[in-house]
Amino acid sequence: MDTLQIFNLRLSKQALGILSNTILVPFFPVFSHLATSGQWDDLKSRIRQGIVMTAVAMLPLGALMIALALPIVRLVYERSAFNAEASQLTASILIAYGMGMFVYLARDLLVRVFYAMGDGNTPFQISLVSILFNILFDFLFVKPFGAPGLVLATIGVNIFSMVVMLWCLSKRLRGLNLQSWIQPLMGLTGASALSGLVEWGLWAGTDAVWGSQGFLLLLINLGIAALGGFMVYGLAAKQLGIPEVQVFLTRMRAKIPFL
Q1: pLDDT tens for residues 121-145?
Q2: Is the distance from CB of 1 to CB of 86 less than 8 angstroms?
Q3: Residues 177, 139: contact at Cβ < 8 Å?
Q4: Which of 55, 185, 203, 254 could be joined to 225 by an S-S link, Cβ 3.0–4.6 Å?
């Protein structure tokens, strides 16, 4: 059973679909309008907003995947031939994916900035170089880490691509004021780490009190842990006073009214 393939098809892409549409799709026409009209300061501000909104969405999701990887896999996949050993392997892959959620979507956002500026060549050239780095990272990571090493290699390539694209955009736009990005990104990272700890603690507590055998108990325990973690994240993120948090929530409510 190819657990990496199962994960790719049935979990990661579904989880990213709603969030990527919520974040990326509305930004592209905005980027295009600002680039076409030469409003470079506003474009830089929107790039920052897009990156911070990506962090608002993806960092807590990544923390959830890392903290609750094994129970999530058990809930979704552990049926018949998919045994505990397969769950452990797939959980390790899920953890690796959780570590790279932010850079995955942030890179895609930056690609759209180049497209909005009428430049598809720069992302293409970066992608060509990234292929070489992917081969190198696969060689370095697969042997020590196994299947998760493939995901770690992809994360490494995404980080490389993101850094190079930021450098190119900074040169073209005469600075992106990256210092203004640090505080919100660090704050959201801390809030996400706290939510992950809460999720892990709630899962461990409920598992110790009444166990987690059976689909229903797994679902209840996961629901309690996830809800508690997201509540803590929401409260912590609100205290940071980051306007992108409210913008993201508004867009999510437009897609999911009961939020």
Answers
A1: 999 999 999 999 999 999 999 889 8
A2: yes
A3: no
A4: 203
Overall size of the chain counted in residues = 259
CA distance 27 to 113: 9
Q: CB of 93 within 8 A of CB of 225?
A: no
Q: Helix count (H) and strand count (E) of the chain?
A: 11, 0
SS3 109: helix
How many percent of the chain have pLDDT more than 90? 58
pLDDT tens for 19-35 read 666 778 888 899 999 99
- Residue 137: strand, helix, or coil: helix
Angle at 59 between CA 56 and CA 65, to 5 degrees: 135
Which of 103, 110, 97, 98 lies closest to 24, judged by CA?
A: 110
- For the beta carbon of residue 52, count every other beta carbon within 10 angstroms: 22
Tokens of 35: 């680039």
